[in-house]
Amino acid sequence: MSIAEKSSGLTREVAAFVTQTRYSDLPADVVQMAKRCMVDGIGVMLAGSREPCAQIARRHAESFGGNSEARTWGEGSLGLPAPLAALANGIAGHALDWDDTALSREADRTVLIHPTMQPLCAALAVGEARGATGQDILTAFILGFEVQVKIAEAMNADHFVYGRGYHTTGTIGVFGAAVTASRLMGLSVDQTVHAIALAATMSSGLGENHGTMAKPLNMGHAAEGGVTAARLAALGYDGPVTALEGERGFFACFGGGHDPSRIRGRLGNPWAILDPGTSIKPYPSGVVGHPGMDAMRDLVTAHDIQPDAIARIVVRTGPNVVKPGPLRIAHAHTALEGRFCVAFQMAAIALRRKAGLAEFSDEFVSSDACQRMQQRVDVSVAPHIAQLGKDRVAFEIDIVTTDGRTHSAKSEEHYRGGPRNPLAWDDLCNKFRDCSGPLLTTDQQDAMLHMLNNIESLSDVRDLVALAQPL
Q1: Looking at residues 68-93, what average pLDDT do you find?
Q2: Could you give the count of Cα atoms lying within 13 Å of 364 in the half-sphere of its Cβ?
Q3: With CB atoms counted within 10 Å of each terminal CB, which end of the chain scores lower, N or C?
Q4: Helices in 321-441 by DSSP H: which ranges?
Q5: Using an 8 Å Cβ cutoff, are 377 and 313 in contact?
Q6: Count of alpha carbons within 13 Å of 42, Cβ hemisphere only?
């Protein structure tokens, strides 16, 4: 490759976009959606801070000592070096699998990535360390979101969990964190190229991790790696200028290739936070199960079907949902497994007509009633649903009752919380309150929601961090 080609490569195009875009270039609807993502992301991070994996991550990070540059959020808040704060917050933010998900509109793939937590954790850690303004935080967050989703869209579909088995939240999410950190640190185009290159070589995350603590580690490691990559680049550490598109670069090694037309000329055109958009989850579990859970809830409610009257639940869906898709666990015994188990999700709705944090708990999942109800659930891949393409998530559900009757339902095409059926602002705020209730007072919640909804006027993000500390 010639010097001229290297100077105009894909990696450099991404870096130039990151360094040259200003807050004033961001459309109002993009900024408003970013605020929604931040409200949701911080809420689930606070809730997840109480989970065992998040507690372990904090103990691990604390053991290193070092400068107190940024705080972990939620329970057991600590001051840590910025990369370790990003690690701990990323693990907490993904611990419940309640953070948002970007889904593809292309028939060859389904889930693109969990897009908010990596740039958010990088923004909070680096932003606190540097005393960044709200406009700085918003701009860097949106750019990180944009770059990682565009990379996920361009990557060959073979990269994903139903192909080679990578978990894009980790493998591609590291770029979102690196871009966000680079922007907040004011890196040049060349330095940002190197940050992207260093992030590429730190990319990791396996789909096999679903249902274990290793899955939120994918998220935390991506956030930590992105911040580390930017800091190394700022100190003069370099990497290949063709890290993304090179013959032995990220796209070739991790996916067997890419479609450059999905990135070239498309950064910010359209903005990924709007198109394909993101799904803010009503349930703390894998998003591809949510249309089925809503259909099941509507079914038992409409016909007032009591748990004891259920003889069998028959679920038909696509391979983008159950194995080889993300909800690959056939029968759940723990809350972590339940987040990726259709049988459990149907059982929870059948037993309680809801599936919140109380249902996604080890106590409930392992209960006799839940274990017995899961055994009544038959989940299969329907060929006619599979033929719709991986971008279509669909369920057909039959409930056979003990008196021999069958009640049937199909999932809605535009599922609740998705980009074409978003949660109302009040519903999003209620989710934030549910997440943060055990840690923050009502006054703190009100003040945080007001501050996040007006974050562009914030002079120092440390004011937000201080407000979020549990009393």
Answers
A1: 97
A2: 19
A3: C
A4: 335-338, 342-352, 362-365, 368-375, 383-386, 425-436
A5: yes
A6: 26
Task: Locate 226 and state its tokens.
Answer: 């992105």
Q: Is the pLDDT of residue 3 over 50?
A: no
Strand partners, 155: 258
The string of pLDDT tens digits covering residues 364-390 is: 999 999 999 999 999 999 999 999 998
Closest CA to 341 of 276, 269, 393, 292: 292
- The DSSP H or E segment spanning 453 is helix 442-453
- Indicate whether 335 pLDDT > 90: yes
Q: What percent of the chain has pLDDT over 90?
A: 93
Residues 175 and 210: beta-carbon distance below 8 Å = no
At 8, give phi and psi (nearest 5°).
Answer: -125, 20
Residue 286 corresponds to which tokens in the numbers above?
């894998």
> Does the model's pTM come out above 0.90?
yes
Which long-range CB contacts under 8 A does 371-374 form with residues at least 24 apart?
Answer: 371/333, 373/307, 373/310, 373/346, 373/347, 374/331, 374/332, 374/341, 374/343, 374/344, 374/346, 374/347
Q: Answer whether 86's CB lies under 8 Å from 58's CB.
A: no
pLDDT tops 80 at residue 6: no
Rounded CA separation 48/43 (Å): 9
Both tokens of residue 262?
């999905």
Strands annotated E in 251-357: 310-317
131's torsion region: left (phi>0), alpha (psi -120 to 50) or beta? left
Measured CA distances, 439 to 48, 165, 273, 352, 406 (Å): 11, 36, 29, 26, 44
Q: What is the pLDDT of residues 225-243, one digit of tens each?
A: 999 999 999 999 999 999 9
Q: What is the dihedral of CA 289, 294, 298, 300, to 10 degrees?
A: 40
* Cα torsion 449, 450, 455, 456: sign: positive
